[in-house]
Amino acid sequence: MNEQPTPEAVSDTTPVTGGEDEAREVGVGPWPGPWPEGEHYDPELLANGDRRNVVDHYRYWRREAVVADLDMVRHDFHVAVENWSHDFNIGSVVRTANAFGCAAVHIVGKRRWNRRGAMVTDRYQHVHHHPDTTALVDWAAEHDLVLIGVDNLPGAVPLETYPLPRNAVLVFGQEGPGLSEEVRQVCAAVLSIAQFGSTRSINAGAAAAIAMHAWVRAHVFAQPVSDTASTSAP
Protein backbone atom coordinates (compact mmCIF):
# COMPACT_ATOMS: atom_id res chain seq x y z
CA MET A 1 0.00 0.00 0.00
CA ASN A 2 1.27 3.42 -0.89
CA GLU A 3 -0.12 6.74 0.23
CA GLN A 4 -1.25 8.70 -2.79
CA PRO A 5 1.00 11.74 -3.38
CA THR A 6 -0.72 15.10 -3.60
CA PRO A 7 -0.18 16.90 -6.92
CA GLU A 8 2.37 19.68 -6.55
CA ALA A 9 0.62 21.80 -9.16
CA VAL A 10 -2.19 22.66 -6.72
CA SER A 11 -1.32 24.95 -3.83
CA ASP A 12 -2.98 24.39 -0.49
CA THR A 13 -3.84 28.09 -0.45
CA THR A 14 -5.34 28.11 -3.96
CA PRO A 15 -8.86 29.63 -3.81
CA VAL A 16 -11.67 27.16 -4.37
CA THR A 17 -13.22 27.56 -7.82
CA GLY A 18 -15.39 25.44 -10.05
CA GLY A 19 -18.78 23.86 -9.68
CA GLU A 20 -21.15 25.30 -7.12
CA ASP A 21 -18.37 27.34 -5.46
CA GLU A 22 -17.52 29.31 -8.59
CA ALA A 23 -20.32 31.89 -8.22
CA ARG A 24 -19.34 33.04 -4.75
CA GLU A 25 -16.21 33.97 -2.88
CA VAL A 26 -15.39 31.64 -0.03
CA GLY A 27 -13.23 31.97 3.03
CA VAL A 28 -11.92 34.96 4.94
CA GLY A 29 -9.43 37.77 4.41
CA PRO A 30 -6.27 38.56 6.39
CA TRP A 31 -6.55 38.19 10.16
CA PRO A 32 -7.66 41.54 11.64
CA GLY A 33 -5.62 42.83 14.57
CA PRO A 34 -2.88 41.02 16.50
CA TRP A 35 -2.24 37.47 15.31
CA PRO A 36 -3.41 34.59 17.51
CA GLU A 37 -0.84 32.33 19.11
CA GLY A 38 -0.47 28.65 18.36
CA GLU A 39 1.68 26.40 16.19
CA HIS A 40 -1.38 25.27 14.26
CA TYR A 41 -1.75 28.71 12.66
CA ASP A 42 -0.20 29.36 9.24
CA PRO A 43 1.55 32.76 9.02
CA GLU A 44 0.91 32.98 5.28
CA LEU A 45 -2.82 32.44 5.74
CA LEU A 46 -2.99 34.91 8.61
CA ALA A 47 -1.29 37.53 6.45
CA ASN A 48 -3.11 36.92 3.17
CA GLY A 49 -6.42 35.34 4.11
CA ASP A 50 -7.76 31.81 3.87
CA ARG A 51 -9.87 30.91 0.83
CA ARG A 52 -9.56 27.14 1.16
CA ASN A 53 -12.47 24.70 1.13
CA VAL A 54 -12.44 24.09 4.90
CA VAL A 55 -14.99 24.64 7.66
CA ASP A 56 -14.59 27.78 9.75
CA HIS A 57 -13.07 25.84 12.64
CA TYR A 58 -9.95 25.26 10.51
CA ARG A 59 -9.57 28.77 9.11
CA TYR A 60 -5.92 29.91 9.15
CA TRP A 61 -4.71 26.47 10.27
CA ARG A 62 -1.69 24.78 8.68
CA ARG A 63 -2.62 21.83 6.48
CA GLU A 64 -0.65 19.44 8.68
CA ALA A 65 -2.51 20.69 11.75
CA VAL A 66 -5.87 20.14 10.07
CA VAL A 67 -4.95 16.57 9.13
CA ALA A 68 -3.67 15.82 12.64
CA ASP A 69 -6.86 17.16 14.20
CA LEU A 70 -9.06 15.18 11.79
CA ASP A 71 -7.07 12.04 12.58
CA MET A 72 -8.36 12.23 16.13
CA VAL A 73 -12.02 12.10 15.08
CA ARG A 74 -12.15 10.04 11.86
CA HIS A 75 -14.64 7.21 11.78
CA ASP A 76 -13.84 3.51 11.43
CA PHE A 77 -15.17 2.90 7.92
CA HIS A 78 -13.06 3.02 4.74
CA VAL A 79 -14.02 3.50 1.10
CA ALA A 80 -12.47 1.74 -1.91
CA VAL A 81 -12.99 2.65 -5.56
CA GLU A 82 -11.96 0.66 -8.61
CA ASN A 83 -10.01 2.79 -11.08
CA TRP A 84 -9.31 0.96 -14.32
CA SER A 85 -10.13 3.79 -16.76
CA HIS A 86 -9.51 7.07 -14.93
CA ASP A 87 -13.05 7.43 -13.54
CA PHE A 88 -13.97 11.11 -13.10
CA ASN A 89 -16.29 10.25 -10.18
CA ILE A 90 -13.43 9.40 -7.83
CA GLY A 91 -12.82 13.04 -6.96
CA SER A 92 -16.42 13.38 -5.82
CA VAL A 93 -16.09 10.21 -3.73
CA VAL A 94 -12.97 11.59 -2.02
CA ARG A 95 -14.70 14.89 -1.25
CA THR A 96 -17.68 13.07 0.26
CA ALA A 97 -15.40 10.76 2.25
CA ASN A 98 -13.75 13.83 3.74
CA ALA A 99 -17.14 15.30 4.64
CA PHE A 100 -18.25 12.13 6.44
CA GLY A 101 -14.98 11.58 8.33
CA CYS A 102 -13.92 8.45 6.44
CA ALA A 103 -10.77 6.81 7.80
CA ALA A 104 -9.22 6.52 4.32
CA VAL A 105 -10.02 6.18 0.63
CA HIS A 106 -8.42 3.36 -1.34
CA ILE A 107 -7.86 3.60 -5.10
CA VAL A 108 -7.69 0.15 -6.70
CA GLY A 109 -6.06 -0.14 -10.11
CA LYS A 110 -4.48 2.85 -11.82
CA ARG A 111 -2.61 5.19 -9.51
CA ARG A 112 -3.63 8.39 -11.32
CA TRP A 113 -7.16 9.62 -10.73
CA ASN A 114 -9.14 12.73 -11.63
CA ARG A 115 -8.82 15.12 -8.69
CA ARG A 116 -10.99 17.93 -9.99
CA GLY A 117 -14.12 16.77 -8.20
CA ALA A 118 -12.25 16.48 -4.90
CA MET A 119 -12.07 20.30 -4.64
CA VAL A 120 -8.65 19.98 -2.92
CA THR A 121 -10.17 17.96 -0.05
CA ASP A 122 -7.72 15.15 -0.80
CA ARG A 123 -5.08 17.24 0.99
CA TYR A 124 -6.88 16.50 4.26
CA GLN A 125 -8.05 12.97 3.47
CA HIS A 126 -5.86 9.87 3.62
CA VAL A 127 -5.82 8.34 0.13
CA HIS A 128 -4.02 5.03 -0.51
CA HIS A 129 -3.30 3.10 -3.67
CA HIS A 130 -3.56 -0.66 -4.28
CA PRO A 131 -2.43 -1.96 -7.69
CA ASP A 132 -5.06 -4.70 -7.83
CA THR A 133 -7.89 -6.40 -5.97
CA THR A 134 -5.59 -8.91 -4.29
CA ALA A 135 -3.59 -6.09 -2.71
CA LEU A 136 -6.79 -4.53 -1.33
CA VAL A 137 -8.01 -7.87 0.03
CA ASP A 138 -4.68 -8.54 1.74
CA TRP A 139 -4.60 -5.06 3.28
CA ALA A 140 -8.18 -5.36 4.53
CA ALA A 141 -7.48 -8.76 6.10
CA GLU A 142 -4.36 -7.42 7.79
CA HIS A 143 -6.41 -4.61 9.36
CA ASP A 144 -9.45 -6.80 10.23
CA LEU A 145 -11.77 -4.96 7.83
CA VAL A 146 -14.76 -6.35 5.93
CA LEU A 147 -15.24 -5.60 2.23
CA ILE A 148 -18.82 -4.58 1.42
CA GLY A 149 -19.61 -3.98 -2.25
CA VAL A 150 -22.23 -1.44 -3.34
CA ASP A 151 -23.85 -1.99 -6.73
CA ASN A 152 -27.36 -2.61 -8.03
CA LEU A 153 -26.76 -6.15 -9.21
CA PRO A 154 -29.08 -9.17 -9.37
CA GLY A 155 -29.09 -10.81 -5.96
CA ALA A 156 -27.75 -7.76 -4.13
CA VAL A 157 -29.05 -7.15 -0.61
CA PRO A 158 -30.86 -3.84 0.02
CA LEU A 159 -28.60 -1.32 1.74
CA GLU A 160 -31.65 0.06 3.50
CA THR A 161 -32.14 -3.16 5.52
CA TYR A 162 -28.56 -4.38 5.87
CA PRO A 163 -26.71 -3.91 9.19
CA LEU A 164 -23.43 -2.37 8.02
CA PRO A 165 -20.48 -3.56 10.11
CA ARG A 166 -18.48 -0.88 11.92
CA ASN A 167 -15.25 -2.15 10.34
CA ALA A 168 -16.56 -1.92 6.78
CA VAL A 169 -14.71 -1.04 3.61
CA LEU A 170 -17.42 0.22 1.25
CA VAL A 171 -16.31 -0.80 -2.25
CA PHE A 172 -17.51 0.89 -5.44
CA GLY A 173 -16.90 0.04 -9.07
CA GLN A 174 -16.31 2.16 -12.14
CA GLU A 175 -19.00 4.36 -13.57
CA GLY A 176 -20.78 2.22 -16.16
CA PRO A 177 -19.54 -1.34 -15.61
CA GLY A 178 -19.85 -1.14 -11.82
CA LEU A 179 -18.11 -3.63 -9.56
CA SER A 180 -15.80 -6.01 -11.38
CA GLU A 181 -16.49 -9.71 -11.08
CA GLU A 182 -13.22 -10.13 -9.19
CA VAL A 183 -14.29 -7.65 -6.51
CA ARG A 184 -17.78 -9.14 -6.23
CA GLN A 185 -16.26 -12.51 -5.37
CA VAL A 186 -14.24 -11.15 -2.44
CA CYS A 187 -16.95 -9.00 -0.82
CA ALA A 188 -18.75 -10.31 2.25
CA ALA A 189 -21.93 -8.80 0.78
CA VAL A 190 -22.99 -6.72 -2.20
CA LEU A 191 -25.62 -4.10 -1.41
CA SER A 192 -28.09 -2.32 -3.67
CA ILE A 193 -29.60 1.15 -3.30
CA ALA A 194 -33.37 1.36 -3.78
CA GLN A 195 -34.45 3.41 -6.82
CA PHE A 196 -37.95 4.46 -7.81
CA GLY A 197 -37.56 6.32 -11.10
CA SER A 198 -36.90 5.45 -14.74
CA THR A 199 -33.09 5.68 -14.75
CA ARG A 200 -31.14 2.43 -14.60
CA SER A 201 -28.62 3.75 -12.11
CA ILE A 202 -27.19 6.69 -10.21
CA ASN A 203 -23.55 7.70 -10.59
CA ALA A 204 -20.84 6.27 -8.38
CA GLY A 205 -20.34 9.53 -6.52
CA ALA A 206 -23.99 9.68 -5.47
CA ALA A 207 -24.05 6.00 -4.54
CA ALA A 208 -20.96 6.45 -2.37
CA ALA A 209 -22.54 9.38 -0.54
CA ILE A 210 -25.69 7.38 0.21
CA ALA A 211 -23.73 4.38 1.49
CA MET A 212 -21.41 6.48 3.65
CA HIS A 213 -24.35 8.30 5.19
CA ALA A 214 -26.00 4.95 5.91
CA TRP A 215 -22.88 3.97 7.89
CA VAL A 216 -22.94 7.29 9.76
CA ARG A 217 -26.60 6.86 10.65
CA ALA A 218 -25.95 3.35 11.98
CA HIS A 219 -22.75 3.96 13.94
CA VAL A 220 -22.73 7.67 14.82
CA PHE A 221 -26.44 8.27 15.39
CA ALA A 222 -27.28 4.72 16.51
CA GLN A 223 -30.11 4.34 14.00
CA PRO A 224 -30.25 0.59 13.31
CA VAL A 225 -31.93 -0.65 10.15
CA SER A 226 -35.20 -2.54 10.32
CA ASP A 227 -35.43 -5.92 8.63
CA THR A 228 -39.17 -5.39 8.31
CA ALA A 229 -38.83 -2.34 6.06
CA SER A 230 -40.10 -2.60 2.51
CA THR A 231 -37.35 -3.63 0.12
CA SER A 232 -39.26 -3.59 -3.13
CA ALA A 233 -39.07 -0.83 -5.74
CA PRO A 234 -41.58 -0.20 -8.55
Sum up the structure in keywords.
234 residues, alpha/beta, Alpha/beta knot, 2 domains, elongated, disordered C terminus
The helix fraction, in percent, is 10-25%
- The termini sit apart by 42 Å
CATH class of the largest domain: Alpha Beta
Main β-sheet: number of strands, strand sense, barrel status?
A: 8 strands, mixed
The CATH superfamily of the largest domain is identified as: SPOUT methyltransferase, trefoil knot domain
How many DSSP helices? 6
Q: How many β-strand stretches?
A: 8
At CATH's second level, what is the architecture of the largest domain?
Answer: 3-Layer(aba) Sandwich
CATH topology of the largest domain: Alpha/beta knot
Order of strands in the sheet with the most strands? Answer: 1-4-3-2-7-5-8-6
Radius of gyration: 19 Å
The arrangement of helices and strands along the chain is EHHEHEEHEEEHEH
Q: What is the count of structural domains?
A: 2
Structural class: alpha/beta
Strand content: 5-15%
Low-confidence stretches: 2-11, 16-22, 229-234
Rough shape? elongated
Provide structural commentary.
This protein is α/β, with parallel strands linked by helices and 234 residues long. It has two domains: 19-71, no CATH class; 78-219, SPOUT methyltransferase, trefoil knot domain (Alpha/beta knot, 3-Layer(aba) Sandwich), CATH 3.40.1280.10. 24% of the residues lie in helices and 14% in strands. It has six helices and eight strands, in the order βααβαββαβββαβα. The chain has helices at 43-48, 63-71, 90-99, 133-142, 181-186, 204-219; strands at 2-3, 78-83, 105-109, 127-130, 146-150, 157-158, 168-172, 189-192. Strands 1-4-3-2-7-5-8-6 form an eight-stranded mixed β-sheet, with helices on both faces. It is elongated, with a radius of gyration of 19 Å. The protein starts with a strand and ends in a 15-residue tail after the last helix.
